[in-house]
Amino acid sequence: MMDRAATLRHIKESQTHWADSRAIRYTPRRRVFHLSDNLFAPLKAETETDFKAGDGDELGRDESAGKMFSLYSSSALACNVFDYWRGLSLGPLLQACGIQDGLNELRFEQQFATGLPGTPPNLDLLLSGERGSRVTAIESKLSEPFQSQAHAKFRPSYFRRDQLWRGLERCRELAEAINTQPNLFNYLNAAQLLKHVLGLHRTFTTDQFELLYLWYDVPDSTVAGDHRAEVKKFSQTISTEIRFRSVSYQEMFESLLPSVKGTEYTRYLRSHYFPARTLS
Question: Buried b / exposed e across 156-165, counting CB within 10 Å, b at 16+?
């Protein structure tokens, strides 16, 4: 069974092996030289606009490679899975994610202000429909849960305005616990998710949004199991206040497969991220 370091190494080596099998050149830091080498297809014009409008430095600036150039970029994973569906009926995709039917628009790198100073975190994806329908906000992860750097906590300003947490009292209790209990979440970036909740709650009513956590599983990894347990703990803590769900990318791909079987899209995703042996 793999520990944290071995799990992260497994992800990096799997992506490096994929690049080597396609004769894709990359730097010692495992960044491709051309973004197109890391994508199934060139970004749709609307998707490129979304990323350029964001501040996550995914595409890079002034000849500097952005985060999406990394072979283990979670935003590249999200683009490779979701950008294909832009302009198509989202029905199969929604079903695979367990999302209500009727949503027909997707946008990347969306931000929702909490009302506090500073830059709100970037949501990887937002799926929406007609006015009044519930939106689904998606946070995408690939290697991040298995990296060793500490997650950011909450600044004191988050607790100075009671109205910020009105209707989210359990979320506030969890935020306070994150600040005082260093090992409450070792793999899940729970603070980031709660900041997304604050922004979404300020923009929509509670029953108008759900937050979907979409993450990359690693078989035979003890810490992947620990991460899954932390996701469950997070969900159980806040589920009385907001709609929060989690799905692994592998589970989603398996559900999506019957609708796209035999396509170049499927063959690409299987070779890049989802070899048959990783599916349950």
Answer: eebeeeeebb
CA distance 122 to 112: 8
Amino acid (one-letter) located at 65 = A
> pLDDT category, 278, cuts 50, 70, 90?
very low
C-alpha to C-alpha distance for 174 and 164, rounded to whole angstroms:
14
**Number of residues assigned to the chain:** 280
Residue 229, beta-bridge partner list? none
SS3 per-residue string spanning the chain: CECHHHHHHHHHHHHHHHHHHCCCCECCCCEECCHHHHCCCCCCHHHHHHHHHCCCCCCCCCCCCCHHHECCCHHHHHHHHHHHHCCCCCHHHHHHHCCCCCCCEEEEEECCCCCCCCCCCCEEEEEECCCCCCEEEEEEECCHHHCCCCCCCCCHHHHCCHHHHCCCHHHHHHHHHHHHCCCCCCCCCHHHHHHHHHHHHHHCCHHHEEEEEEECCCCCEHHHHHHHHHHHHHHHHHCCCCEEEEEEHHHHHHHHHHHHCCCHHHHHHHHHCCCHHHCC
Note whether 75 and 66 are within 8 A (CB).
no
Per-residue pLDDT reduced to its tens digit, 236-249: 999 999 999 999 99
d(CA 219, CA 18): 18
Phi, psi angles (nearest 5°) of residue 239? -65, -20
